[in-house]
Specification:
Oligomer: single chain
Low-confidence stretches: none
Helix content: 40-55%
Number of strands: 7
Order of helices and strands: EHEHEHEHEHEHHHE
Number of helices: 8
Radius of gyration: 18 Å
Shape: globular
């Protein structure tokens, strides 16, 4: 039919250049593979170069090893990417971790600083780094990966600095979206619920904790990285072209209870 756009074309990222952090495991790997599968050329960033090299080889991407808690090193990522792939049109800040399991009253200062540095400061610095390139290109999409921990407290899982960093991402997202809208740069956050990863492995290892997750998730199955990737693909390309400043929750209904 004349004038009808192929829906799949709205998710086509052919020719676009993307940067994905946290790409040595879990969600970061899945996102990098999905963006590549949609046609993007992808630079992948994490500390573990061996894993990055394997992923980059599989997807035809560029590996950039970096400790994202080191602010000076973070500043080297985008220039290196531009030299090897070209200017970024998509940034996915998927790196994140917890540096302590202490209760809030006992969290050590170094753990608080490292958590905020990796989960909040690094995404902000990378957004600043890609900004001039996206301006020159006429737009772009920045996607931060948060957590439902930034929206609700979760009994039995102490994570004050982690929750603060993830809530901060949603605030940063809204502010950047408004400031940079005039440059057609969209900024959004995806907030996953529970799914199996290196961080959550202990929760899935015990029968009691697994039963707790199942009891509190309305949808009758476990979430996976693939469930979250769908939201990232939507926000990265033309399918989400009028969406900005939002935090999209992908949690099987956990926060809807």
């Amino acid at each position: 039919m004349s004038g009808v756009v192929d829906p799949a074309a709205r998710f086509d990222l052919t020719g676009r250049v993307a940067l994905v952090t946290g790409a040595s495991s879990g969600l970061g790997v899945a996102v990098a593979e999905a963006l590549s599968g949609a046609g993007a050329r992808v630079a992948v960033v994490a500390r573990r170069h061996d894993r990055l090299a394997d992923l980059a080889e599989r997807i035809g991407g560029v590996p950039i090893a970096c400790d994202l808690t080191d602010a000076e090193r973070v500043g080297e990522i985008v220039p290196q990417m531009v030299e090897q792939l070209g200017p970024p049109q998509i940034l996915v800040n998927a790196a994140g971790s917890m540096f302590t399991e202490e209760r809030a009253e006992d969290e050590p200062l170094d753990a608080i600083r490292n958590t905020l540095g990796l989960n909040l400061t690094a995404p902000f610095l990378l957004a600043q780094s890609v900004f001039p390139h996206m301006c020159e290109l006429g737009g772009g999409s920045i996607i931060n990966v948060s957590s439902i921990s930034g929206r609700v407290g979760i009994p039995g899982i102490p994570q004050a600095s982690y929750a603060a960093s993830k809530a901060g991402l949603s605030g940063l997202t809204a502010e950047l979206a408004v400031q940079w809208a005039r440059h057609s740069i969209r900024v959004n956050t995806v907030a996953p619920g529970f799914f199996r990863s290196e961080i959550t492995a202990p929760l899935y290892a015990g029968e009691r904790s697994l039963a707790y997750l199942q009891r509190n998730t309305p949808l009758p199955r476990e979430g996976s990285a693939d469930d979250i990737v769908g939201a990232v693909l939507w926000l990265a390309g033309d399918a989400g072209a009028y969406v900005t400043g939002q935090t999209i929750v992908v949690d099987g209904g956990w926060t809807a209870r």
